[in-house]
Every structure is written in C-alpha cells, then in structure tokens.
Amino acid sequence: MPAFGLIPMSYRIIGVVVFLVVLAGGSAALAWRLQDWRYGRQLAELAGLQAEKLDQLTVAAAT
Q1: Which of 4, 28, 27 is nearest to 16 (CA)?
Q2: Residue-range definition of the domain harbouring residue 39
Q3: Does residue 21 fall inside a structural domain?
C-alpha cells in the first residue's frame, strides 16, 4: 500500500487545490515580470517624452 493511500481524501483535495493555486500564482507572477521587462523601457521613454512636452508647454505659457 503506497503512502499516498494513507492520506485522507479531504487532505488530498486540499493539497491539490493549494498546489493549483500556487501554480497559477507563480505563472501570473512570471507573466507579470515578463511584461514589466518588455514594456518597462517603452514606458520610461514615453514618460520622458511627456515630461519634455510639458516643459515645452510651460515655457510657451510663461512667455
């Protein structure tokens, strides 16, 4: 008789659910990190362009 058969069914179900939640959370975290890596530079560049445009508007409004 394998040791897995000694674990009550309710504990097995809880274990599988916990495993699936951890697996889904890990996958989501990995996807989040990959998207941050891919789009981080583009967002920083756009923020710099926006700041530059706001500076130009401020100078134009001050004159």
Answers
A1: 4
A2: 30-63
A3: no
